[in-house]
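Re: that chain you flagged

S.,

Sorry for the slow reply, it's been a week of failed gels. I finally had a moment to sit down with the sequence you sent. For the record, here it is as I used it:
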Amino acid sequence: MYEVLGQIFAGLFFITLIFSYVFWTRLKVTKETVLKTEVELDRVRKLLATTQIELRELKVNGVIARRSEPRVELKFESQIRPAVVEPWEVIRARACEAEIKQELEKLDEPTSEIWTYNYIFSRIEGFLHELEGYAPGSEFVRSIKLQMPEIRIKAKNRYVLGRVKEISNKAARAATFKTRQRYATEALQLLNEPTSVEAIDPAEHERLRAAITHYIAQVEIDAHIEKAHRFEFKDNKKKALEYYKEALYAATHDNIDDIDQKEVIEWLQAKIEAIETGQQNDEIENMPKALEGFL
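Prediction finished late last night. Pasting the structure tokens below so you have them in one place:
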């Protein structure tokens, strides 16, 4: 029994020690916190005292305002002047004029978005119509109205030439002869539109039309030659000879001057003769290079 009581007292004593340690530790922390707080409060008191001394005299616009005075009258001279409000018509007219000038500058800038050239003319036309309502007699309006036919032609010119170049690049990348011919036909149709004929310089228009026509004819010839090569590779001389003759017929019966196709015509004639006679000529194997595009 005494042993049990001894163990109980020992446990109570141990618990008392733990609580005492925790209590004194927290008390120490609390005392340190209080001391720090008092130091901070003392610093704040000194700062407030200094501030109160500095605030006793406040100089505003050359007048000394003292704390003992019940009111302090402050006088300020405003540097802001009232803005001059222009009529809405004047503001909008200036904006339209700026927009027209900006669109005119875009006509001389290269862009990959070819369609914007037609869009530019439409915007200029719209802004000019609006500007006429605000400033119908202005010199700028009269000047732009006189230039509108020229602006329209210039916009169409930039669009057509850019579009033809774009189609030519597509034709050069096309995988099949049929696709190349379709692109070239599309470009030729665009060139033959009345507005395109009007917008493009006659000499430049004729050069482009001739180049595209030549390309279409050459694509047809190349298609026949490609088929002939396939049959020749399969050792089908009869079929190969048939397609070589088709290519020669296309070259000599198209709208292209034979002088411009002299190289391919002579090559086809030599190739046909070599197959018919059974001769082998390595020089004949080097066929003329096919056109990659029409520009």
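What I noticed first: The chain is about 70% helix and 5% strand.

Talk soon,
D.
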